[in-house]
Amino acid sequence: MAGVPSSSSVPTTPLLKDELDIVIPTIRNLDFLEMWRPFFQPYHLIIVQDGDPSKVINVPKGFDYELYNRNDINRILGPKASCISFKDSACRCFGYMVSKKKYIYTIDDDCFVSLLLSSLLFSTGIFLPRVVKTFARFFETTSVNLCTWPFFRSTDLSRNLVAKDPSGNQINALEQHIKNLLTPATPFFFNTLYDPFRDGADFVRGYPFSLREGAPTALSHGLWLNIPDYDAPTQLVKPRERNTRYVDAVLTIPKGTLFPMCGMNLGFNRELIGPAMYFGLMGDGQPIGRYDDMWAGWCAKNNAFHQILTLKLRLKLLILGTLRLRLARRWEVVNTVICDHLGLGVKTGLPYIWHSKASNPFTNLKKEYNGIFWQEELIPFFQSATLSKESTTVQKCYIELSKQVREKLSKVDPYFGKLADAMVTWIEAWDELNPSTTAIAPEANGTTDKK
Amino acid sequence: MSFKINDNEVDIVIAALRPDLTIFLEEWRSIFSRFHLIIVKEPDLEADLQIPHGFDHHVYTKTDIERVVGASLIDFSGHSCRYFGYLMSSKKYIISIDEDCLPARNAAGDPIDAVAQHINNLETPATPFYFNTLYDPFREGADFVRGYPFSLRDGVGCVLSSGLWLNIADYDAPTRAVRPNERNARYVDAVMTVPLQSMMPVSGINIGFDREILGPALVPALRLKGEGKQRLETMEDIWCGMCAKTVSDHLRLGVKTGLPYVWRNGSGNAWESLRREWGGVKLMEEIVPFFQSVKLPAAATTAEECVVTMASLVRARLGSVDPVFLRVAEAMEEWVKLWKRLNFH
Q1: Least Cα separation, residue B142 to chain A (angstroms)
Q2: How far is CA B28 from CA B96, B99, B100, B183, in A?
Q3: Record's InterPro entries (chain A) (predicted)?
């Protein structure tokens, strides 16, 4: 086509331009959008501003967006705003709720301390737990402010950048997510050549023909080059490990299999699974952090799994516990239980983004601490969770799941009773904002800056 | 839980469906020459095998099959002759590659050591109980991701490594007939564990397995009428793979898929095979729900016990669907008896 840029990384025809919203949680600014501009500019952005609502978020010119801060969330949801996390990127799920589009793509943006300081902490932390504890408390209370300090601020404020494929071309992550969502998933039987709907692939010999139509894809889970999404203990043990392996595959997570869903680079069909994409109660006032995406992921998949914590493992965890940091664990869980129940598919693999910055592992450890123990109970819970035939919609599945969370997980920690309540509140809020008849769009705080 | 597999614990089993193995073995020489080879001559092949010098090998022929097995329900013709090699091996691990496959090559043109990769897959734990989004966490440069329960990070033993194919992928006849020019050019740099209770078609073209643990489950029991010498139309390896996965799941062991790749030249006429294989395509529709519903008793703690139980389930549930399954059940039982007779541990 004459006059069109020939670079394969810049889309000439944006797909689903009017059917997809990009949801971005932020606390400071969105300079990272400049790098993503060729891919994101055609789309409508929903920006969920966390933290201090009086701060003005600087959105680069030329983007079509609506912005919501905490005041907006409180105004729109009233008392139901309690289900939306504060001071945690889990607040992004408010964006899912207010969107009117069929598809959502969500990507992380954050800023945090430089690698220099992190390295100092790694080395002191090994020998001086007290130092670690002090620093962790320090970062916990001042992490937002640190981003403004020249010493700590990295030149690259963003962490999720456009990656390049092995040929050196920029990866259009959004385009790949759209391809993943628009083609069927194959959860009922594993295809050894991965996604048979990709160009150049197909179902292998032995794949039953009756299953070759596949199932609708509800979720597309992308990956990350450079800094991998490790938990804090692994980060501490392997601070230098980088994910340099480009695995050129998309595959469907089989039915009945749970997986840890990362919310950093995620697309989903909001009409199919939106109400289940609740990212839980995290952040301010909560005993847990960094498991919001895990929680959403587990809610969706249903898998039977029985494991007992071995004595060896308990000792290992006890040793970790001597750091004595009260860590919050965020539950980010993908609703795979619900996808399996409703016959929907979840894909993982491509696209990659470039994850440029590691978050502070001591802060992470503090947040994840409870979750590391709790997940040993949570996973058997999700793997054995079954939903009744009467739960024929995502909302009904989710409410039924919330009852099971309350009945079976409250004994693990009272937090789960609160979370179960929040799950119900979330569905009530979702249904209020997304009635089956004409929806009334809530007013956003920020001005849209149309192209 | 990772350990080291020595070369002398491995047999490489090759089914010779064509007499001239020169090109095949020369291409694989740098990789195969460290190992002992078991070459099984396809029973209907009359010409002498041509095997280049320098390989430590043993050839089994129709005569051996008849002597050892005698009159048997199990048909060792065509690609199934390799199972005789599995039976006769005394090693702990088997790697088997079709003789129309050559080493895949990396960007520099060097052959990729598929045998070493299979061995690595078998040496390192599998993780079937929870999916790791960065694939095999035991590969260099990878690990378990955030949200992976610590109690599962030891993994379990891997008993089957199922490799892939560049160039001519392992498609069935209908797919090949419709896409005759399609070539698999995508090198996916991953090994992953196939999750618990997830069924998959295990292609026999490029595999490695723990013979001691899984051997009895790789049973050449299902063969279509006229099946034999074309991969396009074989069902026997697909059946074995389903049995093997069911047994692995029951024994809480793991199956990996992905690397290594081999370069497959393939052969056969898709349209001709389609006539023969259509039966297999129809049977898969019964086979898959069957395997998905199989529950083995806790008392079955070895592959032999699992296979015997599965045989009776095949007879009970599939025998009325198609009489071929009655033969399959008998063949499975016979295989276990053969296995016990020839491999007393």
Answers
A1: 7
A2: 13, 10, 12, 22
A3: RGP_fam
Distance between the two ends of chain A, CA-based, in angstroms? Answer: 23
Contact, B136 vs B296, CB < 8 A?
Answer: no
Q: Which residues lie below 8 Å from residue B249, measured CB to CB, with a gap of 6+?
A: B128, B196, B197
Interface of B with A in 177-216 (CB under 8 A): 179, 182-190, 194-203
> What sign does the dihedral A108-A113-A117-A122 (CA atoms) show?
negative
Cross-chain CB nearest to B203 (options A192, A229, A375): A192
DSSP 8-state class, residue A287: S
Cα(A301)–Cα(A254) distance, integer angstroms: 10
State pTM to two decimals. Answer: 0.85
Q: Which of residues 408-437 of A touch B (CB under 8 A)?
A: none
- With residue A429 as reference, give the H or E element that holds it: helix A415-433
Mutation choice for B interface testing from A192, A334, A368, A379 by most B CBs within 10 A: A192
Looking only at the bridges linking them, the beta strands covering B101-103 and B56-60 are unpaired
**pLDDT tens-digit map of B21-71:** 999 999 999 999 999 999 999 999 999 999 999 999 999 999 999 999 988
Task: Please report the ipTM that was assigned to this predicted complex.
Answer: 0.93
Please name the residues in contact with A255: beta carbons below 8 A apart, sequence gap of 6 or more. A187, A188, A340, B198
**Contacts made by residues B72-75, CB under 8 angstroms, sequence distance 24+:** B72/B334, B72/B338, B73/B327, B73/B330, B73/B331, B73/B334, B74/B220, B74/B221, B74/B331, B74/B334, B74/B335, B74/B338, B75/B220, B75/B223
Across the interface, of B146, B179, B238, the residue whose CB is closest to A205 is B238
Predicted local confidence at residue B225, as pLDDT? 66
- C-alpha–C-alpha distance, residues A413 and A331, integer Å: 14
- A–B interface: beta-carbon pairs under 8 A: 189
CB count within 10 Å of CB A91 equals 26
And the tokens for A380? Answer: 């058997």
* Cα torsion angle, B179, B184, B185, B190, sign: positive
